[in-house]
Amino acid sequence: MTADRTRLDAHIAALDAPEGLKTVLTVAAATCADISRVVAGGALAGALGASGQINVQDEEQKKLDVMTNDMLTDALLASPAVAGVASEEMDEVQPAAHSTGEYLVLFDPLDGSSNIDINAMVGTIVSVLKSATPTPTEADFMQPGRNQVAAIYALYGPQTMLVLTTGAGVKGFTLSNDGDWILTHDDIAISPDTKEFAINMSNLRHWSGPVQTYIGDLLKGADGPRGKNFNMRWVAAMVADVHRILMRGGVFLYPWDKREPNKPGKLRLMYEGNPMAFLVEQAGGKATTDGVQAILDVQPEHLHQRIPVALGSANEIDAYPGV
Ligand SMILES: O=P(O)(O)OC[C@H]1O[C@](O)(COP(=O)(O)O)[C@@H](O)[C@@H]1O
Ligand SMILES: [Mg+2]
Ligand SMILES: [Mg+2]
């Protein structure tokens, strides 16, 4: 049934891109397919529960955070095309042992990891930058998201999907029973208008006044200033929330809040904000910190930097007041 469809390896082979980048994409996609099998195995794969370790973000790591981080790190660093990797789950960047690599790969190996023990959707997010040197240090990773040459997420849900951009639109592939990524979503585009938003409402009291007012206006529905009823969804895994927006529009908001002034938002610029912003912009949406500042133009200051995020349907992002 999938014989006449385009496979990811054929799509990658046909890309007008350097061979090294094609290798990176191939390795990342194969590892996401491997991760999907571990995720699907759940308790049978020994993949549930806490690892007993705390990561550099001061978060408790799940066993699967550690397993998936090791899988991506090992696979990518073994590739001659990779100069180094960085991950949400590792304190420092890891340069490759060889000196042939041309690419830096940054990843959130398991996004939405609090979902894993309840058998809800999780994902993997990957960002690819060109490296100025085959022996990179952390300074070489400090590039704005605009420099990305590729971004990928894999969504481990009822179907396992991989969504990819190399800067020429967004394509979605579904993992077949034979273990092949098959093109199922050509030319993904985000509708400019929406009636759906995603935000963790339990944080309402911590937001700035303008964000509270904006959300209050959405909740007033057809009788309020926006003159239409809005629906709300929150999967608690950015990959799944962004995937919904790529499929049917919407906005995803994780605003600045006043709890920890030194952490301007929850989401990580390098592993979550940048790759998702690249995919969203390539699909015709907007990805900002505050409705105006493009995430892709933020100059990173440190590896594990956090940022506020407002992304999705362009006209609704224009209506968002930020902080
Ligand atoms: O705890 P909250 O507010 O629901 O946060 C959910 C957000 O946190 C994240 O889970 C963070 O990702 P990790 O699981 O990779 O730490 C996002 O995917 C998601 O959007
Ligand atoms: Mg995450
Ligand atoms: Mg994670």
Automatic annotation (TrEMBL):
Enzyme Commission number(s): 3.1.3.11
Residue ranges constituting the Fructose-1-6-bisphosphatase class I N-terminal domain according to the UniProt record: 7-185
Annotated catalysed reactions: beta-D-fructose 1,6-bisphosphate + H2O = beta-D-fructose 6-phosphate + phosphate
InterPro entries from the UniProt entry: FBPase_C_dom (IPR044015), FBPase_class-1 (IPR000146), FBPase_N (IPR033391), FBPtase (IPR028343)
UniProt-listed Pfam families: FBPase, FBPase_C
Single GO MF annotation: fructose 1,6-bisphosphate 1-phosphatase activity
Positions annotated to bind substrate: D111, G112, S113, S114, N200, K266
Binding site for Mg(2+) 2: D108, D111, E272
Gene3D superfamilies named among the record's database cross-references: 3.40.190.80, Fructose-1,6-Bisphosphatase, subunit A, domain 1
Top-rank EC class of the record's enzyme: hydrolase
Swiss-Prot/TrEMBL keywords: Carbohydrate metabolism, Cytoplasm, Hydrolase, Magnesium, Metal-binding
Cofactor: Mg(2+)
A GO BP annotation: fructose 6-phosphate metabolic process
Binding site for Mg(2+) 1: E88, D108, L110
Cofactor remark: Binds 2 magnesium ions per subunit.
Entry similarity comment: Belongs to the FBPase class 1 family.
Quaternary structure and interacting proteins, as annotated: Homotetramer.
PANTHER family named in the record: FRUCTOSE-1,6-BISPHOSPHATASE-RELATED, SEDOHEPTULOSE-1,7-BISPHOSPHATASE, CHLOROPLASTIC
Protein's name in the database: Fructose-1,6-bisphosphatase class 1
